[in-house]
């Protein structure tokens, strides 16, 4: 269960949020071995959050929201994978629809970023999902498979099991319109089947497939009931410690 804070929460607010989350999970007797909880703050919060996780031995994973496809150098404004790895970051979101939509990122760039994340020993969370008009045309499965192929291009069969794929229908992000459990399962299953066709069942089973889009504590169990839905990538609801803890424990219960 990964909480993507997006461009919210400064580093002072981040320390309070992450502590409240860890305490709430402890009070709920959450077992991190059953469901992994990951926080994905903005770059400016990473050091503060990492210090708390390490110092207070909080049972939370740490992720970043984006990364450069390049090695350190003259790339103003970018953050290199090696810098994130040095900070103790374990997961990096690549290809989020907000990056694809507002920053012109295409599958080739997403694949290059995912490869860079793997090269530096971290796990990419590779996002993909269809626009509303694509779903209305009934082309969502083919569209998502195309994004999967393009976004994982060049990643070796050895590295693929380390990848996390997040299916996030764009029309369900931040809109309150959650896909039905059947919608989520349909695409997650199709993605896994594609991985199995291309790389074998063992690789496909090892890849964790998440659903994202208006996930809350009240709907997480139904979504997680899908056989091919292994977890959730949560946006808005991860900004509330109690709500995100409810998602983590709700996912564990399903
Ligand atoms: O990365 C998270 C997704 O974009 C979902 O966001 P949301 O839970 O606010 O709909």
From TrEMBL:
Source organism, top-level taxon: Bacteria
GO cellular component terms, A-Z: cytosol
CDD domains per the UniProt record, alphabetical: TIM
EC number(s) given by UniProt: 5.3.1.1
Keywords: Cytoplasm, Gluconeogenesis, Glycolysis, Isomerase
Alphabetical list of Pfam families matching this protein: TIM
Catalytic residues as annotated in Swiss-Prot or TrEMBL: 96, 168
InterPro entries per record: Aldolase_TIM, TIM_sf, TrioseP_Isoase_bac/euk, Triosephosphate_isomerase, Triosephosphate_isomerase_AS
GO BP, sorted A to Z: gluconeogenesis; glyceraldehyde-3-phosphate biosynthetic process; glycerol catabolic process; glycolytic process
GO molecular function, one term: triose-phosphate isomerase activity
Binding annotation for substrate: 4-6, 174, 214, 235-236
Localization, UniProt: Cytoplasm
Catalyzed reactions per annotation: D-glyceraldehyde 3-phosphate = dihydroxyacetone phosphate
Main location: cytoplasm
Annotated metabolic or biological route of this protein: Carbohydrate degradation; glycolysis; D-glyceraldehyde 3-phosphate from glycerone phosphate: step 1/1; Carbohydrate biosynthesis; gluconeogenesis
Function text: Involved in the gluconeogenesis. Catalyzes stereospecifically the conversion of dihydroxyacetone phosphate (DHAP) to D-glyceraldehyde-3-phosphate (G3P).
PANTHER family per the UniProt record, alphabetical: TRIOSEPHOSPHATE ISOMERASE
Protein family according to the UniProt entry: Belongs to the triosephosphate isomerase family.
Subunit structure as annotated in this protein's UniProt entry: Homodimer.
Protein name listed in UniProt: Triosephosphate isomerase
Organism per entry: Quadrisphaera setariae
